[in-house]
Design goal:
Blueprint: E1 4-8, H1 13-24, E2 28-33, E3 46-49, H2 55-61, E4 68-71, H3 79-82, H4 88-108, E5 113-119, H5 149-168, E6 172-177, E7 180-181, H6 194-204, E8 210-214, E9 220-221, E10 224-225, H7 226-238, E11 245-247, E12 253-254, H8 255-266, E13 271-275, H9 289-295, H10 303-336
Parallel strand pairs: 1-2, 1-4, 2-3, 4-5, 5-6, 6-11, 7-10, 8-13
Antiparallel strand pairs: 9-12
Helix pairs in contact: 1-7, 4-5, 6-8, 6-10, 8-10
The chain binds nicotinamide-adenine-dinucleotide.
Nicotinamide-adenine-dinucleotide (NAD) binds at residues 9, 11-15, 33-35, 51-53, 72-76, 94, 98, 117, 119, 177, 179-180, 193.
């Protein structure tokens, strides 16, 4: 019989890629989200547009004993969204509510396994002050001191999933994602993350120009290409490991160096200007010791290869927007002249 999966957040970046992967593996996939995927049609067999903060929507969606539920829905974004403080109440309230609504239903409907997408943002800020030596191994999460309310909500929800496992026998898998990037991720509008934002800035700036980078650019991060993220999720789901685990790259890079890489990929000559802006912790890198041990595997896709694919995709999006904007006045003129 076909395996069945529900993807909460199937209209988002990781959810839409995951739906595609599960279909290639022969699953029946039901997706739910506030919106359809923005950049290509969903691969899910069925898709419900709905708000998972609403318990009635959750009941409607979780209507059968799915083999697997992937809970990816969250109110989230890049540094410009989660580090300004402007969205803290929504981020905490909306994401917590989704998890609180979903979990009891997973127990009630006897779901086989539940995947929860946590984040590297749960790691304590005090271990991430040195850009060259951040400490992000799984057992360093406590004493807790995430650098954002987004991180606190993720930590709370990790504990919620673990509690449901302990008390109700729910079979959970928890990944702490470290900056996932790639084609079909948000690239403008305020929720985009550093890789897509840098690609956009570089692609939009004429040769000889200048791009702005938030902070002094010495802050470090690692970035995991979407295909590797999906592979890791599938491997984790197939495993027996039910404690939180890092899913990220350990190829750490300073943000200015990432910007230089994108400039090189573009073939342009651009200079970098560091400006004040939200930036989060000074250093962060995925510690892949545990994933190597328990899955006998770790991601190793080179950053440059992934950034080339991402830059090409973002540049294509910008070109598509430019063409649409150029065509729009003619179209609007037709409307004004009474054409349908
Ligand atoms: P995303 O924003 O593209 O996807 C999240 C989806 O959840 C969106 O499509 C959104 O519409 C949906 N959603 C939000 N509120 C909802 C609601 N009330 N009801 C129904 N749907 C709702 O984000 P993503 O990059 O695909 O991330 C997926 C998950 O992984 C999130 O939980 C995120 O916090 C986590 N994560 C992602 C990264 C990353 O780098 N992308 C890093 C760490 C953790």
């Amino acid at each position: 019989m076909k395996k069945t999966a529900l993807i909460c957040g199937a209209g988002g970046f990781i959810g839409s890629h995951l739906a595609r992967r599960l279909k290639t593996e022969g699953y029946y996939v039901l997706g739910v989200d506030l919106k359809y995927p923005e950049f290509s049609p969903t691969a899910a067999d069925d898709f419900i547009l709905g708000d998972l903060r609403d318990p009635y929507v959750c009941q409607n969606v979780l209507d059968r004993p799915f083999d697997e539920v992937y809970q990816l829905a969250a109110d989230m974004g890049g540094a410009g969204y989660i580090f300004t403080g402007d969205n803290d109440a929504d981020v905490m309230h909306n994401s917590a509510l989704i998890n609180l609504n979903t979990l009891p239903l997973c127990v009630q409907k006897r779901v086989g396994k539940v995947f929860y997408s946590s984040s590297a943002c749960i790691y304590p800020a005090y271990n991430q002050q040195d850009p060259d030596n951040p400490r992000c191994c799984e057992d360093s999460a406590y004493p807790a001191q995430p650098d954002s309310e987004y991180g606190w909500e993720k930590l709370f929800s990790e504990r919620l999933y673990l509690s449901f496992q302990r008390n109700y026998g729910l079979n959970v898998r928890i990944a702490r994602f470290h900056n996932i990037y790639g084609p079909e991720g948000v690239w403008r509008g305020g929720r985009e993350k550093a890789p897509a934002a840098l690609c956009r800035k570089v692609a939009e700036t004429p040769d000889g120009g200048e791009i702005e980078i938030w902070g002094d650019g010495q802050q470090t991060r690692s970035f995991l290409y979407i295909d590797e993220c999906i592979e890791a999720v599938r491997r984790l789901m197939a495993s027996h490991f039910s404690e939180p685990i890092n899913i990220g790259s350990d190829e750490m890079v300073a943000i200015n160096d990432l910007a230089r890489l994108v400039v090189r990929i573009s073939g342009k000559r651009l200079s970098i200007r560091n400006v004040p802006g939200p930036q989060g912790v000074r250093g962060r890198n995925s510690d892949n010791t545990l994933i190597r041990k328990v899955l006998d595997w770790a991601p190793n896709y080179p950053l440059e290869v992934g950034m080339r694919a991402t830059y090409a995709w973002v540049a294509q999006q910008i070109e598509a927007v430019r063409v649409t904007e150029m065509e729009e006045p003619a179209w609007m003129g037709l409307r004004q002249n009474g054409c349908p």
